[in-house]
């Protein structure tokens, strides 16, 4: 214990190992997977070799059917996310700026927030079938929650001194809203956007898995019902990579906004 | 550094030997401590003072074994310190961060003892005694946050006392409490030294406090730190907030230490000549 | 903001309460009036939904559908929390292992848990083990990363304290480190509870013939709209109730420990 606090690796060495360790980790995992599957430690009925899965992933990328599915998922995800932004951010600003409005909407918001976003799936399936519209509606209502909560929180926690200063300098209401309230809420809204993007992807997959809408989720169901384990692994891997991409993209946006506006 | 040796030829309780510390940051190397050497003998109270940013806390962390020096070494009774040594306790500057809010006052004080496998009943006894000696009888069951800042720092001191250390290190121990509480705590510490037979090394930026509490004051130069001077404080014991501080010698010593701290020129060969290492 | 203590305070407080109650009451009444006027089979009246709720989810319906759902939820959640906590403690103490596993953990964390349903369905077949498996998986990684983060971001003063007073081993973990990480761990557990309910419902919709989710989807497919609404109602109440209970427990635990609860957005770094 004592030596642990004392020992500090030289900075250059630490930086190098910080870069190398993740690479080593992924390589080790991949090797372990391949060897375990090849030697039969993990039976092929549970884990097919990584190489076979990678090859399948490669062929998948050459199939037009895959690209059609990927396009369906991407379109629904983007449209749903955009709709949730258009819905939740203005709503959050309107409700958050006025204490009276906030109190008026507080109870339903607090009650509905923890409700899983797929509760309305059966009703939506009933009313609008299983097409793009259905996906967008479901995604939008699911992704709207984190955005609404973050926007509300951001607008409501604006530094009161800043608002008073703005009023003292007789800034007009639109300027106060944009320059003060929105600017100080922006980092939190960016966090909400990251959460919403992840939620939107999850809900999108649910609509395809349960509602039978076309997309990556439908490919998964197809592979599963065809008893195609390698296919299921390949598509699941792809879904994970897509999730990672979404997280990276919106994490970058979040840091960008945070760096520009934090403490504003 | 064979020139630095205890008068009797025995090891002093604590020896700092040509300590240096350079931090490596992405912005480049920062030399906080360049060359610090001093001895502390058993039973002494020694304060380390210096201008702000003089690496006082760095130095104390090195003495406590929390930080490895870039060069030089710390010897406790002649044994090199590698990691926090047994028999040394540390009172942290920030009581609110060093007391565990989820434990009671008694739980906080007994934690190190239970960790050292002291039986439960004995640990509780020692803790109660220590708490009583800092004036906190009857507060055992309270949580730290139910106490005032000064009382929380007393709990911190009681935790160190119950540990029965040979060496008590204190990092700006009274910096976070108000002036009145500060005097109370200063007067609390001196008799405890006798009672518990401890040697005390404290870091402070308060010259008055350093002179008032100490047998000797180690003055650090501006960073990178070296020892500008070691000033003996031959004020009579017991010290008192009124009599001691009105003593003209107190004023002169305070003046001298203040001059040494404030002297504008950074560490130069001249300062090392001025070192007064032994009494 | 603050209401001054005066004779006017009581009516004003009552007024504030009434103001908050307007919208919920209006929504419920509005639905009832609209539904009974429209006579649309997709939107049954409230008494009919309530009737279906009682027949579907109490008595034999409870033992057949509600109880298995709750048991799977509980088992998967507890399994995921326990293993995530254990793994997080290991990673929290081994920075190199943590760095090496970081890309894999990030991958598992950003993969929507529902995407794993087909895989788990193939590996574990239809049955509670599949539901429990996916729920546990969805909880595991969030707990893992937050426990690690909680331990890692603890105040360095606590590390100094443990080092100086030689507090080590299990005592250090249980008395110093885990309580300090508790706000992170509890926030993660709260987030995971919502995810777990969602995964439970979807897993039942995809691969089960019993359970609340399965029955609700079945009701929609077999034109039993009152029953479908009863299912949606139960799921909504369940999500709401579990979250409320957890929040209360979390606050109580943290207040007892003299700590502040972490915000929900801090749960997934």
From TrEMBL, chain A:
A GO BP annotation: transmembrane transport
Top-level taxon of the source organism: Bacteria
Localization per record: Cell membrane
Membrane topology designation: Multi-pass membrane protein
Segments traversing the membrane: 75-95, 176-193, 199-223, 230-253
Domain ABC transmembrane type-1: 70-250
InterPro entries: MetI-like, MetI-like_sf
Gene Ontology cellular component list: plasma membrane
Any Pfam family the entry gives: BPD_transp_1
Keyword Transport belongs to the record: yes
Keywords carried by this UniProt record: Cell membrane, Membrane, Transmembrane, Transmembrane helix, Transport
Family designation: Belongs to the binding-protein-dependent transport system permease family.
Protein name stated in the entry: ABC-type nitrate/sulfonate/bicarbonate transport system permease component
Organism whose genome encodes this protein: Streptosporangium saharense
Automatic annotation (TrEMBL), chain B:
Gene3D superfamilies for the chain: P-loop containing nucleotide triphosphate hydrolases
UniProtKB keywords: ATP-binding, Nucleotide-binding, Transport
Sections of the chain in a coiled coil: none
Domain ABC transporter: 14-247
Keyword Transport: yes
Domain of life from the UniProt record: Bacteria
InterPro entries found in the cross-reference section: AAA+_ATPase (IPR003593), ABC_transporter-like_ATP-bd (IPR003439), ABC_transporter-like_CS (IPR017871), ABC_transporter_ATP-bind (IPR050166), P-loop_NTPase (IPR027417)
Keyword ATP-binding set for record: yes
GO molecular function, one term: ATP binding
Official protein name in the record: NitT/TauT family transport system ATP-binding protein
TrEMBL record, chain C:
The keyword Cytoplasm is annotated on this UniProt entry: no
Transmembrane segments: 74-92, 104-126, 132-152, 228-249
Chief localization: membrane
Source superkingdom: Bacteria
Pfam family for this entry, one: BPD_transp_1
A GO BP annotation: transmembrane transport
GO CC, alphabetical: plasma membrane
Keywords assigned by UniProt, alphabetized: Cell membrane, Membrane, Transmembrane, Transmembrane helix, Transport
Positions of the ABC transmembrane type-1 domain: 66-246
Subcellular localization(s) per the UniProt record: Cell membrane
The keyword Glycosyltransferase belongs to this UniProt entry's keyword annotation: no
SUPFAM superfamilies recorded: MetI-like
Membrane-topology annotation of the record: Multi-pass membrane protein
Similarity remark: Belongs to the binding-protein-dependent transport system permease family.
Protein name in UniProt: ABC-type nitrate/sulfonate/bicarbonate transport system permease component
Organism: Streptosporangium saharense
């Amino acid at each position: 214990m004592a030596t642990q606090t004392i020992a500090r690796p030289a900075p250059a060495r630490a930086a190098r190992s910080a870069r190398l360790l993740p690479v080593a980790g992924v390589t080790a995992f991949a090797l372990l997977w391949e060897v375990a599957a090849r030697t039969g430690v993990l039976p092929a009925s549970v884990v097919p070799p990584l190489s076979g899965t990678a090859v399948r992933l490669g062929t998948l990328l050459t199939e037009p059917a895959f690209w059609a599915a990927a396009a369906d998922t991407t379109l629904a995800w983007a449209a749903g996310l955009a709709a949730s932004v258009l819905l939740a951010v203005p709503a959050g600003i309107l409700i958050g700026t006025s204490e009276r409005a906030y109190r008026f909407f507080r109870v339903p918001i607090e009650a509905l927030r923890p409700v899983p976003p797929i509760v309305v799936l059966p009703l939506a399936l009933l009313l609008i079938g299983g097409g793009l519209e259905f996906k967008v509606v479901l995604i939008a209502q699911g992704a709207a929650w984190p955005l609404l909560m973050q926007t509300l929180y951001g607008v409501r926690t604006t530094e009161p001194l800043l608002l008073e200063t703005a009023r003292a300098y007789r800034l007009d209401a639109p300027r106060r809203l944009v320059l003060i309230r929105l600017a100080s809420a922006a980092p939190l809204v960016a966090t909400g956007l990251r959460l919403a993007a992840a939620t939107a992807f999850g809900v999108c997959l649910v609509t395809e898995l349960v509602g039978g809408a076309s997309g990556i989720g439908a490919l998964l169901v197809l592979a599963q019902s065809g008893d195609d384990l390698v296919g299921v692994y390949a598509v699941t891997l792809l879904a994970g990579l897509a999730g990672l991409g979404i997280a990276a993209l919106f994490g970058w946006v979040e840091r960008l906004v945070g760096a520009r506006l934090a403490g504003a | 550094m064979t020139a630095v040796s205890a008068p009797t030829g025995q090891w002093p309780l604590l020896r700092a030997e040509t300590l240096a510390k350079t931090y490596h940051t992405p912005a480049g190397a920062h030399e906080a401590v360049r060359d610090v050497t001093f001895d502390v003998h058993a039973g002494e109270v020694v304060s380390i003072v210096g201008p702000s940013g003089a690496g006082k806390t760095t130095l104390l962390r090195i003495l406590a074994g929390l930080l490895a020096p870039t060069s030089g070494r710390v010897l406790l009774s002649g044994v090199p310190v590698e990691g926090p040594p047994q028999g040394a306790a540390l009172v942290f500057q920030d009581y609110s961060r060093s007391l565990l809010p989820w434990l009671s006052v008694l739980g906080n004080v007994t934690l190190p003892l239970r960790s050292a496998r002291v039986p439960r009943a004995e640990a509780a006894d020692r803790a109660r005694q220590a708490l009583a000696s800092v004036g906190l009888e009857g507060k055992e069951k309270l949580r730290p946050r139910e106490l005032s800042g000064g009382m929380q720092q007393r709990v911190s001191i009681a935790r160190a006392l119950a540990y029965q250390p040979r060496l008590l290190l204190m990092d700006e121990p009274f910096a976070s409490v108000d002036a009145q509480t500060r005097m109370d705590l200063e007067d609390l510490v001196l008799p405890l030294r006798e009672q518990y037979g401890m040697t005390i090394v404290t870091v402070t930026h308060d010259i008055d406090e350093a002179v008032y509490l100490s047998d000797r004051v180690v003055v650090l130069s501006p960073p990178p730190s070296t020892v500008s001077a070691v000033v003996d404080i031959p004020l009579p014991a017991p010290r008192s907030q009124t009599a001691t501080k009105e003593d003209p010698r107190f004023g002169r010593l305070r003046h001298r230490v203040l001059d040494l701290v404030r002297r504008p020129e950074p560490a130069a060969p001249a300062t090392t000549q001025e070192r007064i290492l032994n009494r | 903001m603050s209401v001054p203590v005066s004779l006017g305070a009581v009516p004003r407080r009552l007024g504030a309460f009434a103001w908050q109650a307007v919208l919920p009451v209006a929504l419920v009444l509005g639905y009832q009036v609209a539904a009974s006027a429209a006579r649309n089979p997709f939107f049954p009246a409230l008494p009919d939904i309530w009737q279906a709720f009682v027949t579907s989810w109490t008595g034999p319906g409870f033992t057949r559908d509600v109880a298995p759902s709750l048991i799977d939820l509980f088992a998967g959640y507890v399994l995921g929390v326990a293993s995530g906590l254990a793994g997080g403690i290991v990673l929290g103490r081994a920075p190199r292992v943590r760095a090496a596993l970081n890309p894999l953990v990030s991958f598992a964390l950003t993969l929507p848990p529902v995407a794993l349903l087909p895989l788990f369905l193939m590996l574990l077949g239809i049955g509670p083990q599949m539901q429990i498996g996916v729920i546990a998986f969805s909880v595991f990684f969030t707990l893992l990363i937050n426990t690690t983060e909680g331990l890692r971001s603890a105040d360095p003063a606590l590390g100094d304290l443990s080092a100086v007073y030689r507090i080590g081993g299990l005592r250090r973990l249980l008395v110093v480190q885990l309580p300090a990480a508790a706000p992170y761990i509890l926030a993660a557990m709260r987030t995971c509870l919502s995810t777990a309910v969602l995964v439970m419902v979807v897993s039942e919709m995809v691969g089960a013939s019993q359970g609340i989710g399965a029955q609700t989807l079945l009701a929609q497919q077999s034109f039993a709209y009152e029953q479908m609404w009863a299912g949606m109602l139960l799921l909504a109440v369940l999500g709401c109730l579990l979250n409320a209970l957890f929040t209360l427990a979390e606050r109580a635990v943290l207040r007892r420990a003299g700590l502040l609860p972490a915000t929900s957005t801090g749960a997934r770094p």
